[in-house]
Amino acid sequence: MPIVDHATRLITCKLVYYGPGRSGKTTNLTYLHGALPGGQVGSLTSLATRNDRTLFFDYLPVDLGTVGNYRVRFQLYTVPGQPYYAAIRQLVLQGADGVAFVADSQRHRWDDNIESLQDLHVNLAAHGVDTRTLPLVMQYNKQDLPSALVVPVDELSAALNFRAVPEFSADALQGTGVFSTLRALGRAVLHGLGAASTAAQAAASTDRAAHTAVATEVAA
């Protein structure tokens, strides 16, 4: 759920990078934080667990547009992917406005990807979120590895991308596909905010018209 600060005309949205352990979620955020202009990003914060980390930082884009007269700031989070961090994943996912699912393209991680996607759906449902409407993008990371070790993008897409959302081949270590993933997710979230804003304006206009009609009828 976006946080709206009317005093500063700033909307804050939460983007969560989800996927199995060691799929490249942390690598995505680390690369983004190092490559984005310093004036657009906040400090990179790491909450270490035994075998994984939860990272987050603020990002104020200047190239994705605004919603009405409001600027939009994104808060980017990762979740620990190991199965025993289920409670932490659910907590971090709470209030997410968009999700980037980072799949590990290695053949031996096939089942892990499917289980993690199912876990995402379960956790979203626990928060009362309709998985069919939440902005989502898919990233197939580690496609730079030898072809004998990885599943082709079209096979991963057929197994994971049932909603036909934007999808990207990636090498998060080198940055390939990293910005494309973030940009597509940011635009999807902004599109949803714009649609909601338009709907709210239309509803307000309808309410004003109804009140005017009632006032006119009473006066007559």
Instruction: Tell me which oligomeric state these chains represent.
Output: single chain
The ordered string of helix (H) and strand (E) elements is EEHEEEHEHEHEH
Structural class: alpha/beta
What's the CATH H-level homologous superfamily? P-loop containing nucleotide triphosphate hydrolases
* Mass-distribution shape: globular
Give a structural overview.
The structure is a single chain. The protein is α/β, with parallel strands linked by helices and 220 residues long. It has a single domain (3-219), classed as P-loop containing nucleotide triphosphate hydrolases (Rossmann fold, 3-Layer(aba) Sandwich), CATH 3.40.50. It is 39% helix and 21% strand. The protein contains five helices and eight strands, in the order E-E-H-E-E-E-H-E-H-E-H-E-H. The chain has helices at residues 25-35, 86-93, 110-126, 153-160, 178-219, and strands spanning 3-5, 10-18, 45-48, 53-59, 71-78, 98-104, 136-141, 167-169. Strands 1, 2, 3, 4, 5, 6, 7 and 8 form an eight-stranded mixed β-sheet that branches. A hairpin with a 4-residue loop joins strand 3 and strand 4. Helix 2 (86-93) packs across helix 3. The longest helix is centred in the last third of the chain and has 42 residues, at 178-219. It is globular. Residues 198-220 have low confidence and may be disordered.
